[in-house]
Amino acid sequence: MKPEELKEAVEAQAQEIKTVVNKLTKSHNDLDGAVAEIQKEMGTRGKELESTKTAFQDCTANVAKIEDQLDDLVEKMTKMPTAAAQFKSLGQMAAEGEVAKVYKGGQAVLAELNGPLFAKSVTSDSASAGHVAQAYRRDGILSEPDQTLVMRDLLTTLTIGTNAVEWVQEKVFTNAAAAKLEGAAAAESNITFEKKSSAVETVAHWIPASRQILSDAAALQTFIDNRLRYGLKYKEEDQILFGDGTNGNLLGLVPQASAFDTAGLSQSGDSKIDQLRRSILQVAKAKFPATGIVLNPEDWCDLELMKTSDNAYLFSNPVNATQPRLWGKRVVEALSMTTGEFLTGSFGMAATLWDREEVLVRIAEQHGDFFIKGMIAMLCEERLALTVEHPSALVTGTLAATA
To answer: Most C-beta atoms within 10 A of its C-beta, which of 186, 194, 256, 357?
Structure first.
């Protein structure tokens, strides 16, 4: 029953009760009059008249009849559903249902319960009991895992306060040192130098967001801040390895590294492990101590899974994990490294990473019509330079076809 229908029904019942009460009052008055007449006649005649007695009996019967009507109306009002009863809870309906009244253990079928909600089987449909179940909400924001960034840690890192790095590099050293006789002139050697310069470059990106959502969801600003920082560092790693030095890009390690000397060092039948050992030799012949080898994780996996003819692992131990090493040198697994290629070198001596401005996230409304739209710009940027002072301390090449 709708609330307006319920109100009309209650008002109608109340009016009917009022009418019956008025009739009952009049009947009681008539009965009182009949009783008074009987008392008067008893005092004067010693007995009441037959007509007066009949009138008294009629009044008594009429009062009893009207009182029965009033009792029926009160009972109907008591049973009439109230506004609150129109919206009973699931538990109330279950408790008042026939199944709950006869339940003696075991299972009861909810489809048999009374009430509008249980006119048919209870399901998770929105028209049935779907609104009862509430989904569990996990806190926070789930994001894709971050790639492990390793290249910055391999290099010497310094801080500068200018927009470029200049250095003087030895170009040619003619060594004429030799034994000499007493009184004879010493041999003359020669050194020439070359001026080098690397500009400080900027790596940056930004994202628009509404001021309202950042105010209403405080954790979102921190989440975006962290993702912007990671995205910048991800690009930095790629720049350190493969930057081409044009259009504001760094000039990376691989483009400046010495190519692997396949003609002078490779031997027929060399495996990948042999080739990497010879790349260490090439760095050593350039008079630098190799400190590590950078490989894509897929290539390092292939090497670790190499086995002997009797199916034993060649040099890895699947039970006890150790730091990845090959030929005594650290193996650095970098997802940014191209699959099938390698970079061997004395990284600390080969190159220097210069920080002009470290990663910074700035927020501003001064962008286009952002101010009047309630938008903000979150800008993340860093300024840095990369100098490769000794390209011969780095060797790069393509891995051999066979393991």
So the answer is: 256
